[in-house]
Amino acid sequence: MGRQLSWGRHYVMVEPNHFRVDYAINPFMDVLDQPDPARAHGQWLCLVEALRSAGAEVSVLEQRQDSPDMVYAMNLGLVVNDEAGRRAVMSHMRYEERRREVGSAQPWLADRGFRTSYVGRDGVGAHFEAGDAFAFGDALVVGYGPRTEELALKHLATDLDVRVRGLQITHPGMYHLDLAFCPLDSTRAMVCPSAFDEPSAAAALALIPEPLVLTEEEALTFCANSVVVGRTVVMPACPPRVRSQLEEWGFEVVLVDLGELHKGGGSARCLTNPLDVLRGRDLPTVPGGEVVLP
Fold it and tell me: What percent of the chain has pLDDT over 70?
């Protein structure tokens, strides 16, 4: 059995007080299919309760009225702490509609002691969205293609002094890595090879000692977009085969209905951003950084 993930015990979330679908920037969004505000808020509260019951701490950031997608807090920035202190690399969103969100997230993090920086802004550097990045094994695993640009991988590696393993995403419905990849413990992760081009699919399977391989159909239930707290997996859906494997490995599955929030194209993982990833513990230090592509 792999060691429990050391990170994932403290999250920031954004309360959906202004959640709606004002535009369509992914295949799940339809301006004619609006979420019910009260139901969406209730589902969000159920997720918060499930995480706290599993032992996680949840901090809440106020949502901007002009940023309906800000509720998907995973994409605000990548937190990688080290012995020098708390650090957050803010996202530079691919779509202009989402860029205002960071203007509120950056001062919130700075006020709590995080040193903030950017991979790219206003055409400088590269687009980067933190929903494409996970600490796993010996590297920061980063998906690129639909949202994060390949150039961002070099910036992340050199800025953070870590190894970055890039995976090229090609599936339109799994436009962020967190829709196709979910670390479970030190040796296991859920992964959907259909999200990637062939070399990246092979690389994704090779980097996971014990993969739980998802079919495209399973992944599109948002089951990979789950949150792991110790041996608890908080999930929006869990196909029978996936549940059987998780329980065989000793995980407890906790289901939370997030159907209204799916209308914006995200689920449990998109709604949460871990604040406790530690370089040197969760990510090996690689002086000068290193990028590994398939």
Answer: 98
270 an active-site residue?
Answer: yes
H-helix or E-strand spanning residue 247? helix 240-248
Spacing of C-alpha 176 from chain mean position: 8
Catalytic one of 176, 192, 223, 262: 176
Rg (CA), the chain: 17
The dihedral formed by the CA atoms of 144, 145, 149 and 151, expressed in degrees to the nearest 10: 70
User: What integer is the mean pLDDT of 269-285?
Assistant: 97
Query: Is the pLDDT confidence value at 1 over 80?
Result: no
Active-site annotation holder among 182, 192, 223, 270:
270
List Cα–Cα distances, 149 to 129, 131, 221, in angstroms: 9, 13, 26
Q: What tokens appear for 25 in the block?
A: 């920037």
Distance of CA 263 to the CA centre of its chain: 17
188 pLDDT tier (thresholds 50, 70, 90): very high
CB neighbour list of residue 28: distance below 8 Å, 6 or more residues apart: 173, 262, 263, 264, 265
10 catalytic? Reply is: no
Pair 227, 269: CB distance under 8 Å: yes
For residue range 30-39, what is the model confidence (pLDDT) as tens digits? 999 999 999 9
- Report the DSSP beta bridge partners of residue 14: 61
Is the per-residue pLDDT at 122 higher than 60? no
